[in-house]
Amino acid sequence: MTKILIAEDDDHTRDALREVLTMEGYEVIPASDGLQAVDFFRAESPDFVCLDVMMPGLNGYEVCKQIRRQDEKVPILFLTAKAEEIDTVLGLELGADDYMTKPFGVKEIIARIRAILRRTASRGGGRADDDFTMDDLRIVPTELRAYRDKIELALSPRDVKVLRLLYERRGKVIDRNTLADEVWGVDYFPESRALDQHISQLRKRIEKDPAQPRIIRTVHGAGYRFE
Amino acid sequence: MTKILIAEDDDHTRDALREVLTMEGYEVIPASDGLQAVDFFRAESPDFVCLDVMMPGLNGYEVCKQIRRQDEKVPILFLTAKAEEIDTVLGLELGADDYMTKPFGVKEIIARIRAILRRTASRGGGRADDDFTMDDLRIVPTELRAYRDKIELALSPRDVKVLRLLYERRGKVIDRNTLADEVWGVDYFPESRALDQHISQLRKRIEKDPAQPRIIRTVHGAGYRFE
DNA sequence: AGCAGATTGTAAGGAAGTTGTAAGGCGACT
DNA sequence: AGTCGCCTTACAACTTCCTTACAATCTGCT
Fold it and tell me: What percent of chain B has pLDDT over 90?
């Protein structure tokens, strides 16, 4: 579930946001001042942050800086009252994704959060989308395809993740746990054979001779390796 | 130095854009309403124009017309809060180069401006409302129509947006999130099937054999593609 | 070398998830 | 009220992924 950290000193606003976002299916972590917000961010690693600009102790900009020091990418939405307009600029410089001026409608804020999450999920989520080459195979992530000579091979998003991981750490052994974590995420059951199955299927498609793999080699008892 | 005219009535957004574009090395001319924008355009002859659609006095469309009366070529980027407002931009023959729906990230808008400037500098062309061809279909955005041989097909503004997006990134997979963002904007519910429905209906009209689509191909688990 | 146990490969079938699309409904515009 | 376009809903079709089961391979031990 998507975790949203809300830093807002006004109890009313905070509660209202908590209520409404919980209804939308988000997990909400409410913080009532800047210091708490920074603490909670560290502790909970939320997927999204709503920051009030004016807060006792650490203000929103300071909190933003602290958060950015830890996490370059997490989407941040600033909430500001009319009187604070001037510093919007600062917020955007600090890497905020959007800002909203109070008073704002419930629908509006939900729509914005959703839009930002959608955007960062598709654009930022996939790291570098640069092409790379493994053996005689040119992998083009943005096309979800690989090319051998002029022959096209279709790849799933998961295939690309596996290949990119192996490529990025070429020469090193990627153990099964790491692979499972990076590619499948938290809900991977170690006793499942899904990983083996996937490697097998992938080899069938990308290796000239799947019995003698040149791209994804297995290191028995350890994991897989490229090169 | 490249001069950019920004016409935007919201002080937040205008200031933020001014700041950020100045940092990028552009010379920024801010205007807070339509009349001012037209005046400043005459006085300063900027190399690029960002136009908010909704402005007091003269709205973005009107400003655009005035500017085009003077200068056919200057690149114009429309900014709007509502995805539907872009329909008008596409429908009128305004000669817009691109459009963005709010909320947008700072990085995003810089990227677009740079892209447009690069495009127009090398005369590669490609305005948002320029005609383009997909397979045997000629799409004419300003008429909201497509032609196959001499047969006319009606298109909605939304159809045009979908097709244009696929056309611009041909070969690449456009994931559903991006499509939703660019075409529907903020108020798209991810759990809705509106997107699928729209693709299905669109295929029925533009594909010779909707069961074997040649223009809008689906990439299972990822999105759609044209090539 | 030969064997036992552990690890990995892979085919087959079914579960789960994704996409296609017909039908009905709601609201905007006339 | 009627029409039109778009959205939601519901279900069908399809694709992918996972589980299972068994075969093949490897490791370490005797």
Answer: 61
Cβ-count burial B41-58 (b if 16+ within 10 Å, e if not): beeeebbbbbbbbebeeb
Q: Which nucleotides of D are covered by protein (CB under 7 A)?
A: 5-10, 15-21, 26-27
Distance CA A226, CA A163 (A): 9
Specify the 3-state DSSP secondary structure of B127: coil
Mean pLDDT score of chain A: 88
Q: How far is the CA of A221 from the C1' of C3 (A)?
A: 20
Q: Name the DSSP class of B150.
A: T
Mutation pick from B177, B191, B226 vs chain A, by most beta carbons of A within 10 Å, is B177
Q: What is the pLDDT of residue A120?
A: 77
Domain that holds residue A208: 132-225
Question: What angle do the packed helices B194-206 and B157-168 form, to 10 degrees?
Answer: 90
CATH of the domain at A110: 3.40.50.2300
The answer to whether residue B80 is domain-embedded is yes
Do residue A89 and residue A137 come from a single domain? no
Of A64-68, A127-131, B80-84, B221-225, the poorest mean pLDDT is in A127-131
- Tell me the CATH number at B176: 1.10.10.10
The string of DSSP codes covering A190-212 is TT--HHHHHHHHHHHHH-SSTTS
In this structure, the answer to whether residues B111 and B218 fall within a common structural domain is: no
| B62 and B10 fall within a common domain | yes
d(CA A136, CA A201): 19
Please tell me if residue B34 touches chain A, with a CB cutoff of 8 Å: no
What's the full length of chain B, in residues?
227
Query: Residue B142 class from Cβ within 10 Å (0-12 exposed, 13-18 middle, 19+ buried)?
Result: middle
Same domain, A165 and A193: yes
Phi and psi torsions of B211, nearest 5°: -75, -25
Mean pLDDT taken over chain B: 90
Predicted pLDDT at A126: 45
